[in-house]
Write a structure and sequence with these properties.
Elements: H1 2-19, H2 29-39, H3 46-57, H4 66-84, E1 93-94, E2 97-98, H5 100-104, H6 106-126, H7 133-147, H8 152-161, H9 169-195, H10 199-224, H11 231-234, H12 240-244, H13 246-263, H14 272-282
Antiparallel strand pairs: 1-2
Helix pairs in contact: 1-4, 3-4, 3-9, 4-6, 4-9, 7-9, 8-9, 9-10, 10-13, 13-14
The structure holds geranylgeranyl diphosphate.
């Protein structure tokens, strides 16, 4: 049941991510190619799926949340392109292919990220779907705050500040609350906004997202632990595995997932697909 819903949502996200890309033509056609190179390279689409699942759980028509879902995926894609740049994590590969700057040059990769970030807000303002102007404004407010200096960008700042400097558990949690969980929070909350959910459900979605975000990051560290291309090791970064050890990190990811699932009580039976999805993220292999 839930699997059929995930498949349908995923197909819609894949279509919408491509259809909503800027229509750059003529002299600008290479710009569109550059954006699609990163948008269509096999990301898991975790954030857009969360937006759609929360819209559904809050009683909305999830198709209405597609522009918001794409907006979050565009911000996510921009963050990965910029994160891979030589001045940041300096990664030559992303999802098994040359990273954007390796394929198109550094200046173009910078522009590709800028274009995706900007276009995300275009989609929220102008996108299709039966969503009111007030809902669009609220969504833009959430995404700009959670992706910005007090959110994901702030988390990236802490990440860079701790390169070649040991970070303890407290710093890791504070950093990933911002770097990873904030964008997940934006996705969950924007899905609720698209459904016209009340504040109780929006707060429950935040609670879910903060815990799921930390579980997701710890799981990411666990998966990268045995990966030779792992840039955390190369860049001298502390991870949950280096700070807590593999087994404790595994226990932590399960505990945070449990807390996330507990927050879904506010959605009653409608939270079932989200519960299944959280379990899939906990047991993912990539
Ligand atoms: C450059 C402002 C700026 C921020 C960068 C996203 C990010 C912040 C850094 C990338 C490195 C990293 C490990 C970030 C934590 C979030 C995370 C686990 C990203 C990977 O997300 P997935 O697994 O990626 O959803 P896919 O490839 O599936 O889309």
């Amino acid at each position: 049941m839930a699997d059929a819903l995930f498949t349908e949502m995923l197909q819609s996200v894949e279509r919408a991510v491509t259809e909503n890309a800027p229509r750059a033509e003529g002299l600008l056609a290479p710009v569109r190619d550059m954006l699609l190179y990163s948008l269509e390279s096999g990301g898991k689409r975790v954030r857009p799926l969360l937006a759609l699942l929360f819209c559904d759980a809050a009683g909305g028509d999830w198709q209405n949340a597609l522009p918001f879902a794409c907006a979050v995926e565009y911000v996510h894609t921009y963050s990965l392109i910029h994160d891979d740049l030589p001045c940041m994590d300096n990664d030559d590969f992303r999802r098994g292919r040359p990273s954007s700057h390796k394929q198109f040059g550094e200046a173009n990769a910078l522009l590709a990220g800028d274009a995706l970030l900007t276009h995300a807000f275009y989609l929220i303002a102008a996108g299709e779907g039966n969503v009111s102007p007030a809902q669009r404004v609220r969504a833009a407010k959430e995404l700009s705050r959670l992706a910005g200096a007090e959110g994901m960008v702030g988390g990236q700042y802490i990440d860079l500040a701790y390169e070649n400097k040991e970070a303890g558990g407290e710093v890791l949690f504070a950093m990933d609350r911002l770097k990873t969980a904030c964008l997940i929070e934006a996705a969950c909350v924007m899905g609720c906004i698209a459904a016209g959910a009340d504040e109780e459900k929006i707060n429950a979605a935040r609670d879910f997202a903060v815990n799921l975000g930390l579980a997701f990051q710890i799981k990411d560290d666990l998966l990268e632990y045995n990966d030779e291309a792992n840039s955390d090791v190369k860049n001298g970064k502390s991870t949950y595995v280096s700070v807590f050890g593999f087994e404790k990190a595994e226990a932590l990811t399960a505990q945070f997932t449990e807390k996330a699932v507990a927050a879904l009580g506010a959605f009653g039976e409608n939270g079932e697909a989200l519960r299944t999805f959280a379990g899939k993220l906990l047991n993912r292999t990539k």
